[in-house]
Batch of 4 targets.
Target 1
Amino acid sequence: MEVKRASVLGFCFGVRRAVEYAEKALEYYSGKKVYSLGPLIHNEIVLQNLKDKGLEILSEDDLDRVEPQSVVIIRAHGVSPSITKILEDKNCTIINATCPRVNANQITVQKASAKGKIIILTGDSNHGEVKGIAGYAEGEFILLQNEEDARALKEGSGEAVLLSQTTFSPVQFEKISEIVGQKYKNLKINNTICPATKERQDSLVELCKNVDGVLVVGGKNSANTIRLFQTAQKNCAHAAHIQSAEEIPQEFFAFKRVGITAGASTPDVIIEQVEKALSD
C-alpha cells in the first residue's frame, strides 16, 4: 500500500502555541491549580494527556469554581473581555494563548464598534471563537452562519464591517460577502479566515485526485476537521473521519493508495500512528 499525506495537515500555529503554553504552565506552576477555560483544543487525545498532567478544564459558566490566585489559560479561541475581568478580580495568573489571528479579529471588532460601525461576522454560533469575538462588540452585532442567514438580512444604511471566524469555510465566506455587499452599500469586507484553512482544503482536493480513499484525522467536535471530511466526501469515493489509528475502517487496508489529512488540532504523533498502521 502507498500512503500519501496532504501537503498541509495537522497542528496549526495557534493550536501548537496553545498546547506549548499549557505544557509549560503545568510544569512551571506545579502544585497550583491550572485551569483551561473550555477545551484547550478540539482533540480528545491531547486533552486527556493534559488532564493527566493536572490541567482542569472548565466551561465559562463554571467560573465560580476557579480558585482565587490560580492559573488560568485562555485557549486559542479566546474569550470575551467580561470573562477576563472576572479572572482579574480573582487575582488569577492569566496565560493568554489566544491565537494571534483571533486576537486581531477581537481588536478589529472593538475598534470598529467603538466608532459606531455595525459588526457582521460569519461563523458558527456555538464556536468559542465567535462567542469571544462577540463580547468585543459594543454596538450592533450580527452573526451570519450561512447563505440563508445572509439572504434574510435586511438592508442597512450605516457603516458596516464584515469579517469571519478564522476557521470558517472560504467558499461560504465569498458567497455571503457577495450577498451582504448588495444590502450594505457602505461595507468594508475583511477576509479574516486563516490562510491555513484554505491551504488544508486545497491540498486535500489535490490529494483526492491521486488516492482510492482518504482518512481525515481529528476530533469529532473540531469544526475545521468536519469541513475537511465534508470536502473529502465530495471529492473521493471513500472517506472516513477518525480520531485515532484504532478507528481506521477495515476496507482501507485493501486499497492501493490511501491519503491522510488532519485537522488543525491533530498532533503529529497521531498522524504518524495512522500512517504506521496503514503501512504495517
Target 2
Amino acid sequence: MKKNLFFVAVVAFILAGCANEFNKVLKSTDYDYRYEYAKQCFAQGKYSKAETLLIDLIALKKGTDEAQEALYMLAMSQYMNRDFDIASESFKKYYQTYPKGDFAEQAAFYVGQSLYEGAPEPRLDQTPTIGAINAYQQFLDFFPESQQRPVAQQRLFELQDKLVQKELLSAQLYYNLGGYFGNINSNNESNYISSIICAQNALKTYPFSRWREDFSLLIMKSKFQLAENSSQDKRLERYRDAEDECYGFLNEYPESKDKPLAEKYIAKCKKVVGD
C-alpha cells in the first residue's frame, strides 16, 4: 500500500514539474527557446503542447528560415490532435504560402487527408467530401509522381462512393415518402418522380457505380408505383413506361434477386395495357 502511494506521489510530482516547465516556456520571451521546445514536444508526440506554442510563434517567425517549418508542424499537430477542419486550413495555408517549400507535397496531400478524415457519413451534408475530392485531385495534378499517389487515388474512390450513397439514400427517401400518401395527389406523384430523377441522374454521373442495380431497381419500382397511383388520363401511358422499364431491368440484370418482382410488375402492366 505504501509503495503504491509512493509511486502515485512520484508521478504527481513529475507531472507537476512538467506542467511548471511548460508554463515557464509558454511565458518566456526567448522565442528561439520556445521554438526549440515546441519542436521537442512535436518530436515526442506531445501535439497539444506543440500546437499551443506554435500558434503564437507562427507570426513571430514570419520571414525567417523557420517560418515554413513552424507552419507545417502546427498543421500536423492539429491533424494529430484530430482537429481536421482547422488542420486542413493550416495545410492549405502552407501550400499557398510555400508552393515550392520543403513540405509542399506533404501539405498538399494532407489538405485532402484532413478533409477525408472529417468527412461525414453519407446521410449528412457532403460538402467536406466534395472538398476532399477536389483537394486530392489537385494533389494528383501537381504531384503525379508522388509516393502518396496510390493512397490519394484510393481515397478518391472511397469519397466518390460516399457521394453515390448519398444519392441512393435520397432516391430511396423519395420513394419511401411516396407511399405515405394514400390518395392520388400531386405530392404522391412528385415523390415517385423525384426518386426517378434522382436515380437517373446518379446513373449518368456514376455509370460504373457498384450501386447501379440499386438505382435501376428504384427507377423500376418508382415507375410502377407512379402508374399505380396515376389519374385516369395518365394511367395507360405510365403503365407502358413501367413495363418497358421492367424489361430493361431484366435485360441488364437477368440474374437479379429482384427478377420475380420485375416479372410480377410486367404481369400487372400487361393486364392494364392489354398486350
Target 3
Amino acid sequence: MSKASETVRQFTVGFDDEGIRLDRWFQRHLPEATFNVVSRWARTGQLRLDGARATPGDRVLTGQVIRVPPADPVQTERAPRPKRVANLLSLDQTSFAQGLVIHRDAAALVLNKPPGLATQGGTGTTEHVDGLLDALTFEAEGRPKLVHRLDKDTSGALLIARSARAAAHFAKAFSSRTARKVYWAIIVGIPDVSDGWIDLPIGKQPGTGGEKMHVDEKEGSAARTRYRVIDRVGNRAAWVELQPHTGRTHQLRVHMAAIGHPIVGDGKYGGKEAFLTGTISRKMHLHARRIRVDHPDANFPGGQIDVRANLPEHFAMTMIDLGFTVAHGDALPLDEVKFSETAEGKRRLVANIAKTARKERKGERRSRGQTRPK
C-alpha cells in the first residue's frame, strides 16, 4: 500500500458544488470511490462532513470540509473513468443553438425554444435542446444544465443554468415556487369566469404508458393553475394568460381541456374540438411568454432574471388573424408570490400546527393532573 493511500484525505467543498448530494460530489471529484464504497465508509463512521458523521444523501455547502478515509488500493489501481466527450455538432447546429439565446449572464441562459423541438431525448427523439447544449458553453468551462422542461410542441422561454451552483439555486426556486412562469395560449370558446383558478389533481392516464395525463380526483397529484382572459373573438376563441402554481406534466393542457376550453392545436387533450376552421394554424398555441426568477448572484442588476420570449410565427399570425394586440398581454401584472405558498412558508405552517397541538396536549395532561376541589 502506498503512503498516499494510508493517509486520511480532506477536501473543501467548492462554490460550484453548493447544494449537491455527497454521493454526487464523489462522482464528480473521486469517481474511483464507487457508491458502495462511499456507503461502507458512511456505515463505519469514516466519512465525515465538518467533523460529523455523514451519509451519501447529505447535501454539501460551500466551505464545508469532507473527511475521506484512506484510499482503497484496489480502487486506486483501477483505470480512471473516461471524461464525457462533447457532442460533435455541425456549424449549422451550433449556429441554430446560439440563435435561440435571448438572455445570457455568468449564471444562466434563457432560450426561446421553437415548437417541435423536444427539451430532452427519448425513444425515437434524436433532436433536442439537451443535445445542443455543448454549443452553448461560450466562455464557461462546464456544460450548461437544463433546469426545467417545456413540452415538445410548446414554445418559449427555457431557463438553462451555466454551473452546478446555479442549477441548484434555480431548482430550489422552482421547487419552492418562488419562480414565476407566464404562458400565453389561444383556447377554443370563452370561459364563464374571465379570471379564475383551476384546482384539479393530475395523474397518469391508465393504458397510455405514462404518455398522457388526466384529471384524477382520487390518486392524482395536486395541480393549480391561474388563468386570465386577455381578449376574445365573439364566442369562438379567447387569448388567455396561464400561470402554473404547480409543475405537473402537461398541466396547462390538461386543465384547459378539463374545463371545456382546450388549447388550439392540442389534439392530444382536446380531440377534434381543439382546432379552429379557416386560416388558423393546426399547431399548438401554447407559448412560455415570460420567466422571472431570483438570480444566484445577489449583486446581479435588479436581483432577478426577467425575460420575455417572442411568439413563434404560427402563433403571431393567429394573433393578427384574430385581431389581438401583444401589448395587452404584457400589460397584465404578474402574480406576486405569497410566503404561505412557498415551501418554507408551508414548512413553518406545519411546524406551527404541530407546536399548537403539542401545547394543547400538554395542557390536557396538566388538567388531568390537577386535584379536584373538595
Target 4
Amino acid sequence: MRRAIQLGKNGLALAAPNPSVGCVLVVNETIIGEGFTSPFGGPHAEVNAINAVKDKSLFTKATLYVTLEPCSHFGKTPPCVNLIIKHGIPRVVIGVLDPNPKVAGNGIKVLKASGCEVVSGVLAADCTSLHKRFLTYYQKQRPYITLKWAESLDGYIAPKKEARSKNPTPFWITNRYSRQYVHRWRSEEMAILVGTNTILEDNPKLTVRDWVGPPPIRILLDRYGKTPSDQHVLDGSIGTIVLTEKPHAKKVPKDTVFEVLDFSKPLAQQICNHLYLSNIHSVLVEGGSKTLETFIDADLWDEALIFKGVSIFKNGIKAPALSGECISTQSVLNDTLIHLRND
C-alpha cells in the first residue's frame, strides 16, 4: 500500500478532477504490475496496473492494493470493478472508501458479491492525505483550500507602497528555490485565487513556469471590476474566473467568465459554493492579505504554506495571523517554510 500511495502522487498534476489513485498487483510478495491514474479522461489506476502485468496467468493468485475504493459506475471509462472481476483477481486491499455517491461502498459490494475477498482501511490516514482534495470535495461540499503567502522576517507580507517600483511587478520576499516550490504546488491544485490588490500591485501571471505541469484555473476576486484589460490574468491564455459584484459589460477575453457574488454577505462561503458547483476540487489562495483573511476569518482553510524570508521591512502590510497544527518547518536555503494544518 505504501508503494501504491507513492504511485498515486505521480498523477496529482493531471488527474483532477479525478482522484490520483495508486494501484499495485502482488503475487507472493512480488509486484507484478503497478499504475496510477492517467490524465483526466484516461484509464484509472487499476486499469493501468492490470495492463502492466505481463504474465496474465498470475491474476488468479494476485492481491490488488489500491488507495481508493474501485469505481463501480460508468463515467468516461468503464467500472474498474468489472475489470477486476473479469480477470479473476481474488483479493482486493483498499486504503479508503470513495465518498462519491456514485460509488460510496458499492464498489466493495460488487466485488464481494462476485466472491472477491475485500479488506479496507489499510493505511487509511496516509491514503486520506493522498486523496484529501477529492475527499473534502465530496464530504464537505467545497474545495480543499490551501493558503499561501510569503512574509518578511519581521512579519510583513509587502513593504510600504513607496518602497515598490512604480510599474506593477512582484516584490520578491523569497529566493528562487522557494518560488519553484510554489510553482510545483500550483501544478497540483485545480485553481489559484487572488484579490484585486495583488493584481494591481504585481500584475502576476499565476501560471506554472518553474515546474512541469498544467496551470491552475485563475480566479480573480474583483468586486468593482478594477482589473485593467491589459493585465496578465485577462490575457485569455488559460481558464480564468472573475468573481465580481456586477456582470462584465466589456468584451470578455477568451476562456474567461465573469460570475456575480453578493459582496455585502460573507464571501468565503460564497466562493466555496461557486467553486464546488464548478467542479473545482482544490484552490490555492495566494493573497493578498485581505483575501487571505477572508478565508481565515471564516475558518475555511485546510492547510497553510508560509514562507518567511530574511528581509526586514519595518513597516508595510502586516502578514495574516494564523494558528494551526504545525506539520513541518524546513529551510529552503535562507528562507523558512512553515506548513500548518487547520486543527
